[in-house]
Amino acid sequence: MDPALLTPMMQHYVELKRQYPHAILLYRLGDFYEMFFQDAQLVSRELELVLTGREAGAIGRVPMCGIPYHAFDRYAAQLVAKGYALAVCDQMEPADQAKGLVRREVTRVITPGTVIEEELLQARQNNYLAAIVRLRGSKQTVWGLAYADISTGEFWVCQGEGQEQLEQELARLQPAEILLPTEEGLGLGLMRPGDPQAPLGLPGQYTYTLRPAEPFELATARENLLQTYGLRSLEGLGCEGLPLAIRAAGGLLHYLEETQKNLVQPSPQGGHPLLRPPRTYQLTDYLILDTQTRRNLELTQTIREGAFVGSLLWVLDRSRTAMGGRTLRRWLLQPLRDPEQIRLRQDTIQELLESPSLRTRLGSLLDSLYDLERLANRVASGTANPRELVALGSSLGKLPQLAELVAEAQTPLLQSLQQVDPALVDLGHRIEHTLLPSPPPVLTEGGLIRPGVDAELDRLRQQVEQDRHWIAQLEKTERERTGIPTLKVGFNKAFGYYLSISRAKAQQVPKEYIRKQTLTNEERFITPELKEKEARILTAQTEINQREYELFVQLRQEAGSQAAAIRQVAQTLAAVDALFGLAEVAVQQGYTRPVITADRRLIIEEGRHPVVEKSLPQGLFVPNSVRLGSPHGPDLIVLTGPNMSGKSTYLRQIGLIQILAQMGSFVPARRAELGLCDRVFTRIGAVDDLATGQSTFMVEMNETANILNHAGERSLVLLDEIGRGTATFDGLSIAWAVAEYLATQVRARTIFATHYHELNQLETLLPNVANFQVVVKELRDRIIFLHQVQPGGADRSYGIEVGRMAGLPQPVIERAKQVLALVEQHSRIGLGLRSQGKSRPSSNNPKKRFKQESNSRGIPDCDAKAGDQLSLIPTSLYPEEL
Ligand SMILES: Nc1ncnc2c1ncn2[C@@H]1O[C@H](COP(=O)(O)OP(=O)(O)OP(=O)(O)O)[C@@H](O)[C@H]1O
Ligand SMILES: [Mg+2]
Predict the structure, then answer these.
(1) From ligand 2's centre to the CA of 689, what distance in Å?
(2) Which domains, and CATH codes, for the chain?
(3) What would the pLDDT profile of 538-589 be if each residue is shown by its tens digit?
(4) 643 known member of a binding site
(5) Which helix or strand (DSSP H or E) is residue 595 part of?
(6) Which of 180, 186, 256, 245 has the alpha carbon at shortest distance from 218?
């Protein structure tokens, strides 16, 4: 576009827009943020706002769309939620003081990952900005990941191998935005979710921002980290030997510098004003839960509706603050593997559990705290509004009370609240003594500062008070002086205060009255004295507002300089709150403290499903036990039982109890001894994944392959009806082979729920497999679900019975029964089973024979002599063909 065709202001706009081509540019003009050209069209469409126009010079009228500045947060939230980035251009000087064109600059770029506005954030969920650097080798991708939440200060780095592991970390974090160094052939810019050009090999559901490669280079990134945190080496951060992690972190910091110009100013204390120094972690520090497992076990949302209600987190989260809620969610998605850390959390829960009075009082104190973690960053970034500062002050003011409350505490976490940083208490007091308790949300209209704080402010206010009083009295004095009883003092926007007199009496007014307006029944006058007072009030009011604003900003800066210390207590409080919530659940739901061991045992006595138990009337849930992990029990349990009997519930409850234990929580069981797991795998139900072009069965097999390839002795594997999605014989064969492989090769602790009753034969063949069944009571005309798990295998599924209960038409039920009888009598599988019964004399116990023949570990190799035994099955299944 030829600049000569544009007014100077529009030239400036176009110039800025060129610098931020991937963001919507919001250009401040007076009380509005205006957008022009395509941005205007886009925003008017997305937000359903009126598209207007503006004269832009010789070019004529151009499209324009505006939002009032005071509604900025609301509209910005909508745009960011849709995955857009916003470049906010503010006026850097008051329009009336500008010589020529008002100076305007882009002060902030808001992108989905760099949001700090309360309206744009979810209270109980982190909002992560991630950065990834990948090195794609011939065999394996090596990657570095950095992620941060600029609303709370969290900052982590990690380096790992394997595309899948990276995707799982992303699935855990659900980053709002992912930064990548641009690669050859790709440009710069932002890709909204679902963009068909999503970066090679990465999931399409995220927002990606492609960045220049330079800040992601090792030397640059390292220098950036060292500089930012005032360090001489990265040794202390633990990432010295992790070049890809460093590169990702450097790219992330650089992005913040560039987009958050006004927020990210060097902090006087050194360090980053918004992010604490990055912490390094490894995937193996934590219990690994893959995406399927998080989904299948419904940790944070239900499978069917994606709802929070009905998830494990719904049962667990009794924390009182949003920061406690966020912490709990993080713990749930990233359970521990370090027994010492688990014990620390358990200790705190136990202390709270054993002291109801401590718990009650702690609960009400926590209730009165605000989200200190986010408030810390609101003050650090200089964006906190008066109400937020008041919330900060009142929360800090509670710290001494908290310290007193935990004075006798025995566990380290609670003890760490005993020492209160006096600077924070001071700050809290100063905020409380400076700010009025319920100030308006805006900064520039006064009403913020208490009397007695500032002498000048008090003087101005007093003067305004006197002048107002004088005006209030004026009606009375002027009535007396003029002898006009109907004289009134009025006010309107157009010309301020005036004296109103009915037209009939207009002749009686004193001569110093100046006529301003004549209405039908009334004449309006002013006097020089009145105008003088009025002007004085107006100037004083402006001065007051200005003074209050200054005092407020000063106080906010003071608070900002303590951000790191606030963040630190906030973190402790968040952890205390999360554990407080877990203690509450433990009390209300009768959870017990599990014993954590280093071996492979998984012993649960009278365990319950935390969510199902909550949704049933009290006492109706039937507890069940389990022993897994040789030598404490079998390694693999084949679980059979009728439809609707409770197999899936049992299987999931074991996984949930293990996860609860490793996140440090108590568990719904009478007693539990649990060896630490490295991973929990699940394969449950059939979910179509049409989006990725995979069939139901293909998804099932993919997930199964993943389990067989990655599970180990330390893993817990939960398989629900493997092989169901294909022809019966294929499915049965696969189920058999998978179970056998898990028991003999992987030796993972496994629960294998199935309707293939043939699998019960594995118990007789393999020493570390046992059969369990969920029993029902069969009456003459119906069955009763007992939901009890017992040793032994079931031989019927009562599927037709369940169909009847579900309301299948009677003729269909009758016909199904006929077909079933025929099938059982004549099918090859039926024949096979019956002939197998004959061919196996009861005296010849195959389990004994198997043990003699197998190798010294008692576990056969797949191709070992045990094959003789395994051949039993194919011959019996396909008797006619062989
Ligand atoms: N231990 C229990 N105590 C009380 N109710 C239970 C218990 N276990 C399961 N139930 C109830 O039974 C219902 C069915 O359980 P579940 O889905 O586990 O059965 P299933 O054996 O897996 O059935 P299917 O073979 O059809 O998949 C649950 O929704 C729950 O309401
Ligand atoms: Mg089931």
Answers:
(1) 20
(2) 3-110 (3.40.1170.10), 119-285 (3.30.420.110), 595-795 (3.40.50.300), 827-882 (no CATH)
(3) 999 999 999 999 999 999 999 999 999 999 999 999 999 999 999 999 999 9
(4) yes
(5) strand 595-597
(6) 245
